[in-house]
Write a structure and sequence with these properties.
This protein is of the alpha+beta class and about 700 residues long. The chain has seven domains: about 90 residues, no CATH class; about 90 residues, SH3 type barrels, CATH 2.30.30; about 80 residues, SH3 type barrels, CATH 2.30.30; about 80 residues, Roll (SH3 type barrels), CATH 2.30.30.170; about 90 residues, Roll (SH3 type barrels); about 70 residues, SH3 type barrels (Roll); about 140 residues, L,D-transpeptidase catalytic domain-like. It is built from seven helices and 48 strands. The strands form 14 sheets. The chain has a five-stranded antiparallel sheet, with no helix packed on it. Strands 13-12-11-8-14 form a five-stranded antiparallel sheet, with no helix packed on it. The protein has a five-stranded antiparallel sheet with strand order 20-19-18-15-21, with no helix packed on it. The protein is globular. The N and C termini lie far apart (about 105 Å).
């Protein structure tokens, strides 16, 4: 009986131990206090077991069953307590998670966790500091990535590499740490913290210097801004090759990292470098200023900027106090511009002209060699007149414009004006240049043009008696005009106009009395047209053909107009209006724009002449500029703002060629030049053709809607 009693006690102890173990395994996150509670429950079970041994032997089995039942009941109660406390502990831990609004979230349910997405461990907090984007393989999102309701704004940030940002918020989720940033173009969103380099702080104002030093250590970078400050970019990773070179030191500033100097090398490369890379900065010896060698002279000329590389300055370059208005880098944007020349002067360095750039509102001094004078300027614009005057001197020529002004052409020489001496002409306009005062006169025989006012005398009576006028000769003798060298020959054949750089005239051009019927620009519309040739003749100038156009107009034209001289460039050629480029043919006529993606170059061709030739930057890999034959779309505008899903880019000129999505435009953010392989190393566009401002300005003025655009 005693053995039986002991056996039953052992069973009860074993059962209590198993239940206690189950309590521990039921929740791996149970606290030490929970485990202690389970052990106390087991000791109570043992106490009940000892009390049961004092009962009578007759009731042993009943007592044993009751004791076992009580033990089991106590263990269950202990387990319930354990689970309750474990759940309370679990809830306490999980209450550290927050929703996007900052409310606590109960994640006891897996489904709830899925609905809530990533959770905040640290709620968004307001901050304010600068930084630089240094890793671009991250997304920019409306909320930290993974938080419920987030939306991706940019799938990669290559276009913003090394750009400065303003950090306005910080947060931490179960996934990562996040920053809310704003880029310089206004784009705002959340990005992974590791993508942003927190900017070094400036410890003072930038100090301007006029010093010099030598590079003595090469293991330093040359940067666009002091290294580590917001938006810095490295220009040269080491300056080993520049050790020993003398630099011009223009600015110095101190940051939390180091002291920096802004330097310029002899090859005009500029940037910030750590001052420990330099020798002691000394004050730069100032070279003696240039001096004037002539007095300033008033001028009234028109011209064009044609020089290769010059500056435009407030005073002639080198004169004490001069300031550069347009440097050599920006000068190219003004090449080809028309100018008004108002002053001239000489210094010991060069001869200079003071220019006003037409339609630009910019003026300054420039080297005389940079300007090609195209004519004299009007001191006063032509005004209407209505009176009669007599020709009192034929020591003047009759011209299409006042003599010496841009584009003037002689109509009658001095000798050819002799028969008009004493004749009365109707004066309808007057103008003034530095050379003379001018009158536009009309004779009764239809001859008209500009004549020096000194050769005329105003007639008092408007109705001057015709009887007093000398009769006009039936035919003005040829003194200076071109001469015929052959008889007119009757012919009958057809030809094609393949070179429209010729005028159509009433007589062979240059022969006395010829009149232009169609100018060069007007003849461009007839390119490629088949014409009927009925006469031929030769003069001292050229061989001529009398043709009839399809619209019925007839006249004389140089026979070279039937010959295609062709046009060639770096990677294409034009023959008979067909562009051969990229192993393909395009029918473009004489007017078109073409872009060579491989060589990153653009050409504009007008009337079979290259009028624009410039390097460009096309679409980066993955955002390639479309290839093919396009037309300029009716959405061209100046100025305008290009708008994308997450960006706005103001441009001065927009020339779309495929819908309103792809086009040619200026890009003031391209500070590192154009051409080369820039489009493949981080400077490529989103598909458009980024073009220097001066070039795209001329394209915009020259090519209208419907013009051909070929990209190959």
């Amino acid at each position: 009986m005693k053995r039986k009693h002991l056996l039953l006690s052992a069973c009860v102890f074993t059962l209590g131990t198993i239940v206690a173990n189950q309590t521990v395994y039921a929740d791996e996150e149970a606290s030490t206090d929970d485990l202690a509670t389970s052990v106390v429950a087991t000791d109570e079970s043992k106490k009940d077991e000892r009390n049961s041994e004092t009962s009578t032997e007759a009731n042993t089995s009943v007592e044993d069953r009751a004791s076992a039942s009580k033990a089991t009941s106590d263990e269950k109660e202990s387990l319930a307590v354990d689970n309750k406390e474990a759940t309370a502990t679990d809830k306490e831990e999980k209450s550290n998670y927050y929703s996007d609004s900052g409310d606590e979230v109960d994640l006891s349910s897996t489904e709830d966790a899925k609905k809530q997405g990533d959770q905040y461990l640290v709620r968004p907090q307001e901050v304010n500091y600068k930084g630089t984007l240094v890793r671009t393989k991250h997304t920019l999102d409306t909320k930290p990535w993974g938080v419920a309701g987030y939306r991706t704004l940019k799938h990669d940030l290559r276009d913003y590499d090394r750009q400065a940002v303003t950090v306005t918020k910080e947060a931490k989720t179960t996934r990562a740490s996040w920053l809310k940033v704003t880029f310089e173009d206004g784009l705002t969103g959340w990005v992974d913290r590791i993508a942003i380099y927190k900017a070094e702080d400036y410890l003072g104002e930038v100090e301007k210097l006029d010093g010099q030093a030598k590079v003595i250590r090469g293991r330093h970078t040359l940067d666009t801004r002091p290294y580590g400050t917001a938006g810095w970019k490295t220009l040269e990773s080491q300056v080993n090759k520049r050790v020993g070179q003398t630099v011009k030191v223009q600015q110095v500033v101190k940051t939390t990292r180091a002291t920096w100097a802004y330097v310029t090398f002899s090859d005009r490369t500029s940037g910030w470098i750590d001052v420990v890379a330099l020798s002691t900065i000394t004050k730069r010896e100032k070279a003696p200023s240039d001096h004037y060698t002539s007095a300033v002279k008033e001028e009234a000329l028109v011209g064009q900027i044609t020089g290769k590389s010059h500056t435009i300055d407030s005073l002639p370059w080198g004169i004490d106090g001069f300031k550069t208005i347009v440097d050599r880098r920006d000068y190219k944007d003004y090449r080809g511009a028309e100018v008004l020349v108002t002053k001239s002067v000489s210094t010991n360095r060069a001869s200079w002209l003071y220019i006003n750039i037409v339609n630009k509102g910019l003026s300054g001094w420039i080297d005389k060699n940079a300007i090609t004078i195209t004519g004299e300027a009007f001191l006063a614009q032509p005004e209407k007149e209505d009176y009669y005057a007599k020709v009192i001197s034929t020591n003047h020529t009759l011209d299409s414009k006042p003599w010496g002004t841009k584009g003037f052409r002689q109509i009658r020489s001095r000798a050819q004006m002799r028969p008009y001496l004493g004749q009365v002409a109707h004066v309808t306009q007057s103008a003034q240049t530095k050379r003379a005062n001018w009158s536009f006169i009309e004779f009764k025989d239809g001859l008209n043009g500009w004549y020096d006012k000194n050769g005329l005398k105003k007639v008092a009576d408007k109705d001057f008696p015709a009887s007093t006028e000398k009769p006009l000769p039936k035919e003005v003798p040829l003194h200076k005009g071109d001469q015929y060298t052959s008889e007119v020959k009757e012919v009958d054949y057809s030809a094609h106009l393949l070179d429209t750089h010729h005028t159509l005239d009433s007589k062979p051009w240059g022969v006395d009395g010829f009149r232009t019927l169609r100018g060069v620009n007007q003849m461009a519309a007839y390119y490629g047209q088949a014409v009927k040739v009925t006469k031929e003749v030769s003069t001292t100038r050229a061989n001529w053909a009398y043709i009839t156009l399809n619209d019925g107009l007839s006249g004389w034209i140089d026979k070279q107009a039937f010959e295609d001289r062709g046009l060639r460039a770096q990677s294409w050629q034009l023959r008979n209006g067909v562009l051969y480029a990229g192993n393909r043919r395009y029918n473009v006529g004489q007017n078109f724009i073409t872009v060579d993606i491989r060589n990153q170059r653009l050409w504009g061709v007008k009337n079979n002449k290259i009028v624009v030739d410039t390097p460009v930057i096309t679409g980066r890999p993955g955002a390639d500029t479309p290839r093919g034959h396009f037309k300029i779309q009716p959405y061209k505008a100046s100025p305008t703002v290009l708008v994308g899903p997450t960006w706005r880019s103001p441009v001065k000129y927009w020339i779309p060629f495929k819908g309103n999505m792809w086009g040619i435009h200026d890009a003031n953010w391209q500070h590192n030049g154009y051409g080369g392989n820039r489009y493949r190393i981080g400077y490529g566009s989103a598909g458009c053709v980024n073009t220097p401002l001066g070039a795209v300005s001329k394209l915009y003025r020259t090519f209208g809607v419907g013009a051909n655009v070929v990209i190959f």
